[in-house]
Specification:
Blueprint: H1 2-15, E1 30-33, H2 40-52, E2 56-57, E3 66-82, E4 88-102, E5 108-122, H3 144-149
Parallel strand pairs: 1-2, 1-3
Antiparallel strand pairs: 3-4, 4-5
Length: 153
Amino acid sequence: MRIPTIVVLGLLTAACGFQLRGQATLPFETLYVTIPDISPLGIELKRNIVAGTHTRLVNDPAQAQAILDLISEERGKSILSFDSAGRVREFQLRYRLSFRVRDARGRDYLPQSEIGVTRDISFNDAQVLSIPKRRPRPAPLRPGPRRRVAPEC
């Protein structure tokens, strides 16, 4: 009874299009990443490249077939709503990454591209554990957005 059930579940899973991520295929064998090694984004991105592709990371741009340039990394916060007493109730956090992939001669494999993540966060005064005179701070964007952005680079 178990074997037919497992076979049926396997067929249903395959029929719906489910597939493990597996390894990505990049059109180059070596890559130099200009993001600093101490950057959390750089660490996450390099880990994804090593684990998810056959591309080898190199430490010298002259040895690389492609170079990943980080053009900008921006974080932003804006207030979405206030309560009746004028206190902040919702924030919107933004994370935007601009990059490009080029060869050693400067020709673009991928022209300047941008990836952005936006998150709306509710704020509740009853959950504040800090000094009341300080401005309320929502949870930071790290590391969630970097984990979502890194595989897309």
